[in-house]
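Researcher: Structure prediction, please.
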Amino acid sequence: MYLSKILRPPGTLASRLTLWYAGIFTISALVAFGAFYLVISTVISKNTDQDLMADVQEYSSMLAAEGIDKVKAEMAWEALSDGQEHIFLRLLSMDGKELAATDMSAWKSIGTGSRALEKLRRGADYVLETLDLPEQEFKARTVYGSIGPNLVLQIGESLEEDAEFLELHRTVFIPLMAVMVIIAAIVGWLMARRALSGVEEVTKTAIEISKGALDKRVPFKARGDEIERLATTFNYMLDRINVLIKGMREMSDNIAHDLRSPLARIRGVAEMALTTSATEEEHKAMAGSMLEECDRLLGMINAMLDIAEAESVAGEVKLEEVDLVSLIQRACELFQAIAEENEVKVTARLPESCVVYGEARKFQRMVANLLDNALKFTPPEGTVTVSLKADNGQVVISVIDTGIGISEDDLPHIFKRFYRCDNSRAQQGTGLGLSLVKAIAGSLGGSVNATSHLGKGSTFTVTLPELPLSHQFQPSS
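Model: Predicted structure follows.
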């Protein structure tokens, strides 16, 4: 357990990122050095072999031009100038007999190279070997090459200079690597802290919000990175939450206000029924009044539930063919009695047919609410006109009245829950009808808007796709 605690990575993300930066840099540097070291050693080895073979070729030309004595003299001079402990040269016959050689005291254990001579006899131009001799501190590289008839030249060089050169690279790399790892860790820490500074600001803001500071927002810095998008999204989420909280508070206040009056009337009627000696007809009237108030409360609750269902697209969506022409005609017929009672003329401008896909119940509620709203605020001798048209894959339902109209101040708010204009408070209602229309239109993939002029009337327009929700559901055959 103690070992696991030691091996456990640091708790902060910045520390883990720093370790990742340093680790990846270290591995990358080691791989790069290994590749560079391999290339350098390969190049050095290749150059050494090429130099040895060039020397054999040079002696071969010298033998042909100046004779064996010149070759022997040149061998002695080269060994003396380069150092007899670093280089040796020998002349051998093809059967391995030594014909001439430089001072071999530093190369006592070297053999005649019978396998190399065998390869030459088989036709090889050169034979290269690496020797590891006990009397030599460093390895040696040797070449066998034929320079004349039955005459083989062997040249051997110590690889001391090559080894020291590579050792210098290793000696320089190790401390340099240590310094670079430290620098990488420092740079990684700074980069991680800088990259995560925005996350810390988001975290700090979230902590302050959790303590009740709902007006706090993440400071915005135009950095153009993911943290900026996170901060922007977080602030947008907070704004949305504030709007929802405000809406919930307003809705709670409106519900409490609208429920208080009918409940108070119900209680008053019930108290009157209990405390007074009323006749049977009066008791029936009181019971009827209580039923009306209860119906009004139930209507308000059902409307709120319908709005919530439409806005959340809750429940199973029943997609069916709906003939809007027949549906609107039936709605106009149902409201004809109310219209005649209020001396309002209802007309419909409809095409011969218009079939859409959706829930008939939702279409019925939407059209009914629009007609009820128009008739409620249209004075006698006024008109309410319902029109329907389909064009470019969209269906447009318009309800136009010649009623009292809506002021410019009230118009942006009429689709809010429980909102009632000043000139509509004299009419009975809950302020949920238009909210339900907007919610249903949205659930069907459409929208609703209103235009109005005080004293001249209003126009409510619902725009729907001919195939609502077609991206999620397909109509049944």
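Model: The two ends are 66 Å apart (CA to CA).
Researcher: Thanks, that helps.
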